[in-house]
Amino acid sequence: MRLLITGGRVIDPANGVDDILDVLVEEGQILQVGREGQGSGVRGQGKKNKKPGNQEPSTTNPDRVIDATGKIVIPGLIDMHVHLREPGREDEETIASGSAAAARGGFTSICCMPNTEPVNDTASVSEYIRELAQKAGRVNIFPIGCISKGERGQELAEIGELVAAGCVGFSDDGKPVADAELMRRAMEYATMFDVPLLPHCEDPSLSAGGVMHEGRVSTELGLKGIPSAAEAVMVGRDILLSEYTGARLHICHVSAAESVRLIREARARGVRVSGEATPHHLILTDEAVRGFHTNTKMNPPLRAAEDITALREALIDGTIEVIATDHAPHARSEKEMEFDYAPFGIIGLETALGLILTELYHSRLLTLPMIVERMAVNPARILKLKHKGTLAPGADADITVLDPDREWTVEERELQSKSKNSPFIGWKLKGKPVMTIVAGQVVWETT
Amino acid sequence: MPSEAAMQVHEKAQIMDATTIQRALTRVAHEIVEKNKGTANLVLIGLRSRGVDLARRLSQCLKQIEGVDVPVGALDITLYRDDLGKAGRQPAVRKTEIPFSVEKKRVVLVDDVLYTGRTTRAALDGLMDLGRPAVIQLAVLVDRGHRELPIRADYVGKNIPTAKTEQVQVMLQEEDGVDRVVILKNTDDQ
Amino acid sequence: MTLKRKDLLTIRELEPEEIFLILETADSMKEIASREIKKVPALRGKTVINLFYEPSTRTRTSFEIAGKWLSADVVNISTSASSVTKGESLLDTGKTLQAMHPDVVVIRHPVPGAPKILADRLQASIINAGDGAHEHPTQALLDLFTIRERLGRLEGLKVAIVGDISHSRVARSNIQAMRKVGIEVRVAGPATLLPRFPEQLGVEATTDVEDAIADADVIMMLRIQRERHGPTMLPSLREYSRLFGLTVERVKKAKEGVLIMHPGPINRGVEIAPEVADGPYSLILDQVTNGVAIRMGLLYLLTGGQRTER
């Protein structure tokens, strides 16, 4: 199977490429990226592992030619933070439906958080997930393993076994690791495998009972607040522990300006800490909660305008290296509850790129190469995903084609995710993934 | 009667002016005295809002005739209307202020216009809830006909034959700054 | 002038003219309480459901009496007596009730915004009788009514609200209502129970109760509910009483004839001294009386409105 993507603007920050080029794909790998026109002037010989040597690249007779004129061709997006709900809550999302949602959203790889039922704290669960992912055959799924057994925050999970079973990072996401001693040991242990820890930073005693950001809006609405300090206190602790143990730390869904400050300071003194921000934390403030719509309830909560400003600055200056969705499907019946009783979380896979393009690219805060770095290159680097996040010859042929100017409306009925809990339904966006290619196969295509 | 807000109306004719209104009230006052054989136990209860003004004027007339103060009360019948919650907005509720017991009294209800009789029906119900008067009589400045209920006035200032499409508007010094009664006609009907 | 809404969920959404309309209507209703036969037929054939997810005596009774005096059929549903305990969602409960065609559903619920869930989906008028720490609009309206009845005006008055401001729906609704009619509001309480952003509510906050009440025309004390906010907010009721309780001595330092209010139920000797609660300037029982009139006024105004089909 040969695929030729022609006429698009290829943005491949990992290789310093940003030009109108053709991309030729063969056998699930990038064969070559070169000047427009069939078979002409291809730079960079294929460094294919399987076929080393002076193979003459050729673009003749591709099985399919994709005209990407006016479009952007980028390494496939990688979402480091997704909840797939399978096993356990297949009514909310399955590995198959989540894969379809990812593909529609332009993601070629996603990491699934371990808080399923059962939680992913043993190799057998990881293997089960990978098996189902294989069957779904849409996108690459990399499991994140638990830090603690049962996410109970007491005993270390078998991190070594989980790494062997394919887990690329560790987190008790959904829950913070409240016990500092456990976190310290998890970090020390993780250094043996050079895997990052992805903590959900929240001091549960400060956030107890809270359902939204503690700020001006919560003052008015009478909803119990979660102060920014609940997150920042934990970010601070984990940074200090990372500094002490030398472990790699990636702070999940950073929401507060205070956390940003701590991460920036830590990076300046050389701590191995990175962070991610979600599209919703970059776009919505706590003002969105005013109507008591439970699709504005997530943890960490939507924060104040000052926090958005800090997050955007951090995203621009690289303090926060990653955009991740924290895609969290929930059944309608559970979301259609009183605000306090509804679960935290919203889906995000299918709106992430559109939102980022609309709100950050078209408003000239981020360039397209910067977006590609934060949604593909950096996640691959942090998680050490080989042959991902790059269009170098020999890399996996995971490719996203996007139309930065395509205008569209987020329609509930078009969502591939089984759950529809998005606050962005009805939003008009500019910019959209139009084709998703995983291992050389087109897994999603917008007509 | 509040006029229908948007309806285009014009004045067809003036039926009464200050003099004729006063003359009518004086005559009604005389009739009240005559029919009740004096003013013993007599009270006047006006229906909000112009009925109250008329009741006060009748009380003045009675004072001139008989030299006694006949008590005046104000009854708001809104909560007794038979069209509540039926269409559109709720009419404003105003205060019922009857600073005396109606028990065993000879009550004269006073209203400006007698038309369908529904307001009077509501007033009778409202009054009954306040006690058990000996007698209830009805005095109106204008009777324009078109009754929808078996109700008639005991005292009428002036009978005015009208079409149902017309409106009778009573304007009084106290509320409107002028004393006159006019017939309004829908412009579309011309 | 008419109420421009199907529901009463918050004071925040009300125009000042609407507040005054409700007060005027309640004023006319008040006469009915003085009658021997306390019943008028205005809401004959209308059904009012009191749906209470929290225990309440005075508010529920007040709505019940208001409905009955207006001849509505009033049904009370409280958590223990309904399928609420069986885990039915509020929305399903609402749909079930709607199928019985009530005209008004009065709801009290521990979660802010819960009444809106019903309001958005039911044809019936929804009245918020208290949603968590969010709002308690009828309480604020009856408080305004009571102040106006005693002082003859509202604009230009100064009111001090003292107690657990941050968890109080009474405070939130009253602050809104008072500011809309031109009352200056100051709030006082322990630092742990003051809102973090009082300016967002448009009030000045202080931890000095005597300073707050110094030039107030009205002092409104709030009930301290230690069981609600847990042991980290206040060391003890005794200390609270000493620092913030409305004692005879403190009242003496305030303006001569300052009026005392409390939404009830009172913790005698905690937030308010018995002599103050029962004193000549106490409006506490007037508040209860006027609560019925306010709720009659509201029921009347809401049942007449145009129904938009949904």
How do the helices and strands follow one another from N- to C-terminus of chain C? HEHEHEHEHEHEHEHEHHHEHH
Q: What is the gyration radius of chain C calculated from CA atoms?
A: 19 Å
Our Rg estimate of chain A from Cα atoms comes to 21 Å
Hey, roughly how much beta strand do the residues of chain A contain? 15-25%
Annotation field: number of helices of chain C: 13
User: Which word captures the global form of chain A?
Assistant: globular
Average pLDDT over all residues of chain A: 94
Instruction: Give a count of the beta strands of chain C, DSSP E runs of length 2 or more.
Output: 9
- Classify the fold: give the CATH topology of the largest domain in chain A: TIM Barrel
Q: Which structural category fits the helices and strands of chain C?
A: alpha/beta
The biggest sheet of chain C, with number of strands, parallel, antiparallel or mixed sense and barrel status, is: 5 strands, parallel
Q: Please report the two chains with the greatest interface, counting residues with C-beta closer than 8 angstroms to the partner's C-beta.
A: B-C, 22 and 28 residues
User: What's the tally of helices of chain A?
Assistant: 13
Strand order of the largest sheet of chain C: 7-6-5-8-9
Shape of chain C: globular
Distance between the termini of chain C: 25 Å
Secondary-structure content class of chain A: alpha/beta
Instruction: Kindly give the count of domains of chain A.
Output: 2
Name of the CATH superfamily of the largest domain in chain A: Metal-dependent hydrolases
The CATH class designation of the largest domain in chain A is Alpha Beta
